[in-house]
Amino acid sequence: MNNTLDLAKLLISKKSVTPDDAGCQEIIASRLKKIGFHIEHLKFGEVDNLWATYGDSGPIFVFLGHTDVVPTGPIDEWDSDPFIATEKGPFMVGRGTADMKSSVAAFVTSIEDFLKENHSLIGRIGVLLTSDEEGPAINGISKVVDYLEKKGEKISWCLVGEPTSDNRLGDVIKIGRRGSISARINVIGTQGHVAYPDKANNPIHSFSVPLVELSNLKWKDQTGEFQDSVLQISNLNSGTGATNVIPGNLLLDLNVRHSPSTSAEEIKSDIESILKKYHINYEIDWVIGGKPFLTTELDLINAVKDSINEVKGIEPVCSTDGGTSDGRFIAPTGAQVVEFGPGNASIHKVNESVRTEDLEGLNAIYKTILIKLVSES
Ligand SMILES: [Zn+2]
Fold first, then answer.
1. C-alpha–C-alpha distance, residues 79 and 82, integer Å
2. What number of other Cβ atoms are within 10 A of residue 277's Cβ?
3. Per-residue pLDDT tens digits for 152-178
4. Which residues are catalytic?
5. Which of 33, 55, 112, 156 could form a disulfide with 124 if both were Cys (CB 3.0 to 4.6 A apart)?
6. What is the distance in A from the centroid of ligand 1 to the CA of 115?
């Protein structure tokens, strides 16, 4: 029986819906402790985090992942119990199979296999897990990063096990992610009767021209690795429902996914200068979802690419698209960050699945990365 598969199945059987870890990290910690890891459980608020390290000196390579999963959605739409990993043809179905308990299981088994082979170590190995990646991520990796900084610990290489593959295991890895900034704008007018517009101030009318300008905002990417950054409006609400009332305000939500060429400050200032140009009376709330990052040093990128090539015989594409991940918290510390995991076609969906044979592939590729980065051979 495949060891990685067994461990993945055990983790999937734990109902670890964010922020509940449901015992997953304890299972992993006890496996790692057995092979000589130093274990620290870091609980912040209701979020469980695990920091486990092996080795005494040298740069540290860290596997980063999460034990939490998104809710199942309508349970009767699943073909099988989402918390019982069920093999169906070439796939294994269950919540967290792809995002990302298979990767987490392969972290553990690849380290076990690597240490069994008695390589001579030139670095350290770390495993960093949180139970709040899918949620607000306030008490997760961001807090652990603060803790590590206080300890003077600096991560050199970080492999995030998020599902990145497209059609085949290893065909896509991520070497960066866009940043995300959101805003809610409240355009303030004066409510009144439609028959007396001179006694009111219609926010729909006053906002119509700036709305067009906002929706045309675009920031060019200069790195050559990202798409240009564009603004998207996700919600636009105004009106009282009555047809004879000029509304008193208008609410708009927007988001920009941006490349490292454009800072959040630049985006804020471009948006606010449009509002000011048209003398809009507004309130605005900003939320910075994550800073963009791009890994440009080649040690980790090449180790991942070469390992995939050796195990699967394919050349991965380096991508920067998709949403954010916990890599956003590690990259600003100066670590090289690369994301690589199984196929992502079914993540967060009903009947989430992974190709069962990819668990062995993940184990072998992760082990090869360890050999390349932290051992002499
Ligand atoms: Zn994930």
1. 8
2. 11
3. 999 999 999 999 999 999 999 999 999
4. 68, 133
5. 55
6. 27
